[in-house]
């Protein structure tokens, strides 16, 4: 998703969030094909959300995407990240202790610093390109990845090329 505090007519969700005793409006845009992507990948994998966003905001968006609480059994927020010099790092062991079985799909290179061999970088989507196919293009790779015994054997190859 892409979220902005700037008013947007074509957003998918407008939500009010109370942060530091201030009420803020956020306009949330779903990346094209998000529902299909989550439906398909949710059949293949146990999904988790691990975000550097604050819980107060992220919980609302995650509940909107997963109203029954079945798609994302694990939900980790900024308070589960490791902060170093204003950068939020994600400890994947909180999601799955067996690092051979976990990967992180993220658009922030900082997210991968603790586990670079588990990284699947994706291009950021800024809410405007309604023709974006980035999530659909990721499906064949994720489909193939589920048949390896250790995801790091495949994901680490990108770092040596």
Overall description:
The structure is a single chain. Helix 1 (34-44) runs parallel beside helix 3. 24% of the residues lie in helices and 22% in strands. The model has no long low-confidence stretch (mean pLDDT 94). The protein is built from 4 helices and 9 strands, in the order βββαβαβββββαα. The strands form 4 sheets. It has a 3-stranded antiparallel beta sheet, covered by helices on one side. It has a two-stranded parallel sheet with strand order 4-5. A two-stranded antiparallel ribbon has the order 6-7. The chain has 161 residues and is α/β, with parallel strands linked by helices. It has helices at residues 34-44, 55-65, 134-145, 151-155; strands at 2-4, 13-19, 22-29, 48-50, 74-76, 82-84, 87-89, 104-106, 119-121. The longest helix is centred in the C-terminal third of the chain and has 12 residues, at 134-145.
List the helices and strands and how they pair.
Blueprint: E1 2-4, E2 13-19, E3 22-29, H1 34-44, E4 48-50, H2 55-65, E5 74-76, E6 82-84, E7 87-89, E8 104-106, E9 119-121, H3 134-145, H4 151-155
Parallel strand pairs: 4-5, 8-9
Antiparallel strand pairs: 1-3, 2-3, 6-7
Helix pairs in contact: 1-3
